Amino acid sequence: MIPVAKPLIGEEEIEEVEKVLRSGFIAQGPRVAEFEEAFASYIGTEHAIATSSGTTALHISLLAMGIGKGDEVITTPFSFAATGNCALYVGARPIFVDIDRATFNLDPNQIEQAITKKTKAIVPVHLYGQSAKMDSIRKIAEENDLLIVEDAAQAHGAMFQDKMVGSLGDMACFSFYPTKNMTTSEGGMITTNNAELADNARVLRAHGERGRYQHSVLGYNFRMTDIAAAIGLVQLKKLDGFNQKRIENAEYFTEHLKGICGIEPPFVSPEVKHVFHQYTVRVEDGKRNDLMNYLNQEDIGTGIHYPIPIYRQEIYQKMGYNTTCPLTEKAASEVLSLPVHPSLSVEELEKIVITLEGASDKFF
Ligand SMILES: Cc1ncc(COP(=O)(O)O)c(C=O)c1O
């Protein structure tokens, strides 16, 4: 089976983890501090705060900004549930705005009409590794006095124009889950240039402590371990190489998919560096599930990112959400992610293309 995602862990990661295990510092310690410094320097922000996951990074970012009960947060419904849930965790209401058809990202043209007196922040997601249209989103945020938290969980190393994703808003959150472009097993990171927000996030990450056993605010245990940071330090050095391979794999698919009908390759905006966390095609005419089953029978793994808009998830329905975003609904029924990870061999790339050609003759 060619898996749709595969973490690439080498001997270096194993050696670094062993060193941590032998050091005695296995919770948050010097390796976490080192990883934060290296990550901040990679993204080009003044601060980076490591967390236990991308979800906890999002959660404490909103809290650090003082967002809570009665506030609204504008975001995309076409994402992993954590993007919407982080607003719920802090007692705020996520307001879902439809996506741009081409990029699958939050459509800036629809944000303004969703702004109310209660709106405090925008959470754009850089879906599949492609930056949201951050110039327009920043302009709207500035004009309406809103904060921006980038959900960069899928976009390590991605760029918008000449700037790194993760440095384009007030705060940004990354995930290091094993399927991501780099991993720490579980883990997350907040990046920001704002010293006060960074400080708030650090305090919230560790029980709200400003001094030993002095709990100034209601905080959490959302810390990263030195074991995870040791993996992250090695993976960060490999990230650009991993991303380059993903981009080459994506280019190979797009070149070969041109002649295949029924399957629409992903659009890459000329304004971005897309790092292809996912290579996601659209499959037309209700044939997505047939194509998926066919590929799976041929031992090619696939993913659907995401089959259900966040507002249609049971928890949101129970809260009374009656949002409908037509382009999100359509995308949810058409998208199919193919394997694009850096460890794909030439033979595997060829097999995927040949299988798609065969499927196209069969289904379209
Ligand atoms: C867009 C998006 N946001 C948030 C998250 C949450 O990250 P984690 O799984 O590390 O909690 C993910 C990861 O799955 C994601 O893809």
From TrEMBL:
InterPro entries: DegT/StrS_aminotransferase, PyrdxlP-dep_Trfase, PyrdxlP-dep_Trfase_major, PyrdxlP-dep_Trfase_small. Keywords: Aminotransferase, Pyridoxal phosphate, Transferase. It holds the Pfam family DegT_DnrJ_EryC1. The keyword Transferase applies. CDD domains: AHBA_syn (cd00616). It comes from the Archaea. GO terms for molecular function: pyridoxal phosphate binding; transaminase activity. Gene3D superfamilies: Aspartate Aminotransferase, domain 1, Type I PLP-dependent aspartate aminotransferase-like (Major domain). GO terms for biological process: polysaccharide biosynthetic process. Belongs to the DegT/DnrJ/EryC1 family. PANTHER family: DTDP-4-AMINO-4,6-DIDEOXYGALACTOSE TRANSAMINASE, TRANSAMINASE. This is Aminotransferase DegT. It comes from Methanobacterium subterraneum. The lineage of its organism: Archaea, Methanobacteriati, Methanobacteriota, Methanomada group, Methanobacteria.
